[in-house]
Amino acid sequence: MISRAKNTPLSEWWWTVDKPLLFAVIALMVGGVVLSLAASPQVAERLDLDLFHFVNRQVMFLIPAAAVMFAVSMLNPRGIRRAALITFLIFWPAMILALFIGPEIKGAHRWLQLGPVGVQPSEFVKPSFIILAAFLFAEGARRDDIPGHFMAISLFGLVVGVLVLQPDFGQTMLIGIVWGALFFLGGLRWLWMGGLAGTGIAGIFLAYKVVPHVRERIVKFLDPGGNENFQGERAFESFVSGGWLGKGPGEGTVKRVLPDAHTDFIFAVTGEEFGIIFCLVLLGLFAFVVLRGLWHASNEEDAFARLAIAGLTMLFGLQSAINMAVNVQLMPAKGMTLPFISYGGSSLISLAFGMGALIALTRRRPRAKLEAGANPLPAGQLG
């Protein structure tokens, strides 16, 4: 047991951290390994890999992910900004590099191959971009001599421009919604908010018109009875097959023919083997993290911390909601993972970075330390 009397960084962290939020995130991380055991062996078998190939790799990635989350959660707000800036400066150029030397996977260049490990730089850009955007919006609202809003718009253009070139319209939509919400929370007027929403709708319409695979996914979604909607039909069939209580671990049959059962459609596999009730419990766990984060944001006095907490929470919550909505055929397929549950090293470690930052920013701190670490900095300084 960690004593309050010992004034060490670890004891200070333990007694100031939001333990319910921390344990909810840990439960999701552990749940990802358990559900990978249910969903991935059949996929590995189809690919002529070791039966527990994806499970072993999930555990392998979970170790550095847990270390990243713990290390980031011990930082103060200034340290969070510095970590976000360093992460962005490393992985945004890596996104551009992936366009030229990355392998083409399903028509997109989103990955860099580093030996036996594939890295998706955009996954690491997401949380760092949200933190930097929160800082710029906070500074822009606080100081007239800093063009924070203009810099946030420019930063958004840099990120979205590369995502569209990859192309990755799912991540573009996700980042766009969260960035727009931060802009609104940072003081954007309703009139301009309407214009921003109109621009987003126009972008979706343009993507439908000029990008074949976007149009194909939307057409499949609008015609669920068509022969082309194989993934959506199988995913929905999984929930019907599992019923309320599920068939039991390892007893699922639809997952044998469901593409991406260990990544995009792991929620459907969960429904077949563990049942709808278990899926609702999992949904409740995601909802708890989101509501807890938004509660902290609503009670936060510092502008940067408030916007960063809200942005990271929305990023986590929207990604979760989109993945589950796709699984139950409420949205077209997006190729987006279920946080901490779907298989994927880049996704797991980047989510750990984002949740580590969220846990750090929601820690209780004495007023003196809060003012030293969280108050906005002089013009142009992130650290």
UniProtKB/TrEMBL annotation:
Its EC number is 2.4.99.28. It catalyses: [GlcNAc-(1->4)-Mur2Ac(oyl-L-Ala-gamma-D-Glu-L-Lys-D-Ala-D-Ala)](n)-di-trans,octa-cis-undecaprenyl diphosphate + beta-D-GlcNAc-(1->4)-Mur2Ac(oyl-L-Ala-gamma-D-Glu-L-Lys-D-Ala-D-Ala)-di-trans,octa-cis-undecaprenyl diphosphate = [GlcNAc-(1->4)-Mur2Ac(oyl-L-Ala-gamma-D-Glu-L-Lys-D-Ala-D-Ala)](n+1)-di-trans,octa-cis-undecaprenyl diphosphate + di-trans,octa-cis-undecaprenyl diphosphate + H(+). It is found in: Membrane. It is an enzyme of class 2 (transferase). The chain crosses the membrane at residues 21-39, 59-76, 83-102, 146-165, 172-192, 274-295, 307-328, 340-361. GO terms for cellular component: cell division site; plasma membrane. Keywords: Cell cycle, Cell division, Cell shape, Glycosyltransferase, Membrane, Peptidoglycan synthesis, Transferase, Transmembrane, Transmembrane helix. This is Probable peptidoglycan glycosyltransferase FtsW.
